[in-house]
Design goal:
Layout lengths: L11 H10 L9 E4 L4 E4 L12 E4 L2 H6 L3 E2 L14 H12 L7 H6 L4 H12 L3 H18 L4 H7 L5 H11 L13 E6 L6 E6 L2 E7 L5 H11 L3 E3 L3 H15 L15 H11 L7 E2 H7 L6 H10 L11 E2 L12 H16 L1
Parallel strand pairs: 2-4, 5-8, 9-10
Antiparallel strand pairs: 1-2, 1-3, 5-6, 6-7
Helix pairs in contact: 3-5, 6-7, 11-13, 12-13
Length: 354
């Protein structure tokens, strides 16, 4: 299959139901045009919902604008990715200003920030609370200290822990290892990277990228724990590979890169690795059905096993499972959300045609 199969539009009833539920699953792909106000919105827009008879749906913002509709100033439908909550951005700035600070709820309240509001904002953008996010990053600096061979007590005091047991519990809980064992194990580094369709969590070490997933992926927590178990403890800290990875992702989204040449260190069975290799062999801007992918690995009867292997892939975009669709051309399961799969396929087709 050399061309991307035409994407089947959901029914108007399904789209209207998503509008009523403020479902973000279609954001960036489908828009609602309100006939009475001549405004078009994302389906997740928080504005008052119009009657079904007063709307129609389109998968093109250009189409809406051509028909005389203006972009909603509340949900900003022309922004592909949901922007970070203003409070999230403020907290990230505070964190960068003092990365070693041991943040607490009292610290937030002293700044006039409601703790529950901060939690909701951060959970919405990164899937974790700000206090947990800050703790993980602070412990990342501690791990680097221990990895250089410095004493546990010095790292403990630097991190602001008066209790040795408290420090040990924090390291074990957040990073997955006993402090005294850290220098003996390979430590994986983690960092949030930006893309136009939402933040992605990257986990890597000197061997290469172990994980690259969108924040909303439901299986993300399980995949992180699995990576800890198979490879080693993980902490948030810088690594040279992240700069290269961010650059290559930026080039992909700008349309100037079609193939990635960054090292991959994902663990899997021999069958899974063969399926992932086949994914990387699917040309940019084209798609394959699951049965075609099975034939690529000389195992035409393993269609369901191939689908499971694709679902086990922890490296989005670089190992492009978004290029595999149903035999009838429909969009099928994609952990990063179906709308992203459609977006990525349209993105590639657009630049391939150029």
């Amino acid at each position: 299959m050399n061309q991307i199969t035409k994407i089947q539009k959901p029914s108007n009833a399904e789209l209207y139901q998503s509008l009523l539920l403020r479902d973000a699953a279609y954001d960036g792909f489908y828009f609602v045009c309100v006939i009475t106000t001549k405004i078009f919105c994302k389906l997740s827009c928080g504005a008052r919902k119009p009657l079904e008879s007063n709307v129609f749906f389109t998968n093109s913002s250009e189409d809406a604008i051509t028909q005389g509709y203006r972009a909603c100033k509340r949900c900003r439908p022309l922004q592909v990715a949901k922007p970070l909550h203003p409070l999230t951005q403020k907290l990230l700035t505070l964190l960068k200003t003092d990365a070693e600070k041991r943040w607490s709820g009292d610290d937030l309240r002293q700044l006039g920030i409601d703790v529950s509001t901060a939690r909701r904002a951060f959970m919405g953008d990164f899937g974790v609370s700000f206090l947990k996010f800050a703790r993980e990053h602070r412990l990342g600096a501690v791990v680097s200290t221990l990895y250089r061979g410095e004493q546990v007590i010095e790292a403990q005091l630097d991190a602001g822990y008066d209790s040795a047991s408290g420090f040990k519990d924090a390291i074990s809980r957040e990073i997955g290892s006993n402090p005294s064992d850290l220098a003996k194990k390979p430590i994986l580094s983690a960092k949030w990277l930006k893309t136009p369709i939402g933040p992605t969590l990257a986990i890597a070490n000197d061997d290469g990228v172990h994980l690259l997933e969108f924040a909303e992926r439901k299986a993300l927590a399980r995949e992180i724990n699995e990576t800890k178990r198979k490879v080693g403890p993980i902490c948030f800290r810088e690594h040279a590979i992240f700069k290269t990875l961010q650059t290559q992702l930026d080039e992909y989204f700008s349309g100037s890169r079609q193939e990635f040449d960054i090292a991959i260190a994902q663990y899997g069975t021999a069958f899974e690795k063969s399926a992932w290799k086949a994914l990387q062999a699917i040309p940019y801007g084209t798609t394959r059905a699951y049965n075609e992918q099975a034939k690529m690995i000389n195992n035409p009867n393993a269609v369901r096993a191939v689908a499971r292997a694709n679902g086990a892939n922890k490296i989005a975009i670089i190992i492009p499972c978004h290029r595999v669709i149903g035999a009838d051309g429909t969009m099928t399961g994609y952990g990063g959300k179906i709308w992203r799969k459609e977006w990525l396929l349209r993105h590639e087709r657009k630049f391939l045609s150029r």
